[in-house]
Amino acid sequence: MTIERIPFLSLTPGADAAEVRAAIDRVLTRGHFVLGPEGEAFEAEFARASGAAHAIGCGNGTDAIALILRALGVGPGDEVVVPAMTATYTALAVTMVGARPVFADVEPGRLTMDPTSLQDRLTSRTKAIVPVHLFGQAADLQALSAVATRAGVPLVEDCCQAHLATWGGRPVGTTGVAGAFSFYPTKNLGAVGDGGAIITNDAAFAARLRCLRNGGQVTRYEHVDAGVNSRLDELQAAVLRVRLLRLEAGTAHRRALASRYRAGLDGTRAIPVPECDPGHVYHLFPVQHFQRDDIRARLDRAGIDTLIHYPIPLPAQRAFASMAPAACPVAARAAAELFSLPLHPALTPVQVDRIITAVRAADRPDGSTHA
Fold this sequence. Notes:
By secondary structure, the protein is α/β, with parallel strands linked by helices. The protein is built from eleven helices and 14 strands.
């Protein structure tokens, strides 16, 4: 009998397919594709949904981080502290402005930037701190903000995996000077291509970012700064407007499935990353297992797709070898043990129960499926 596979994720439009098509057709009919009414409307709607005064669309989440750093005046000779466990693009954004990424270790359990490690990494050259709200859960912003305030260094929030997440009831991206978001298709709020945005409550900072993302122009053909070309196009903005309307319900579904996973995996050696704040939005559902490769192989045979986020911690990336980064042992261990189970709005409780059953069976020393 052929086992019906449970894919890790499907990016084909599902319940929103007709709405996505209508949004695309609306843009095609209008014939305005960059910096038009869809982008303006999305920026207003996303700012409101994110609890911020301003949103600025841009090309992708990496650009969003780099634009914030540029607007802060970060450049060559400066250092920016980022966590050792995240997508490499967080650190690449730092290199885009000519600065040097410095890697802080992550906290055991939560796996976001460790405030103690952050303190140890600060130098006179530190010009920004970029915690990542990893897997959909906010970093410990209270402790990180305290370190940043004492050092007099701005905090920039990488919210690329945390759309609508909160920390202590406060929306992510509103504690620091600004928050960076990605709309890569796999995100909780995903486009049908690349896209990104920045949120901030500072009107002057928002104006600076709008100028920088559009080549440094203040009026057509008048460039007051050597900005970049990083604009959210109208097609993506129109699709995102449609999907933003479904984001709250999709987030509630993710949380319900995550709760089901936690209950079902209790007592196994597959340890979910703990939920430290109810504002977690579960972009991913990672678990740690000391025999990761073995259990993933068993799940694959049972028809369950899994992925690894992230197998190489940033200090071990060859791209940063010349920087002689300090060791980050917590991140290194997590990178060797973490893998992610399927979790997305199209996943059903019945499928989650099947995955739980497969994990419990695969977790037995002999891989037996018998009770």
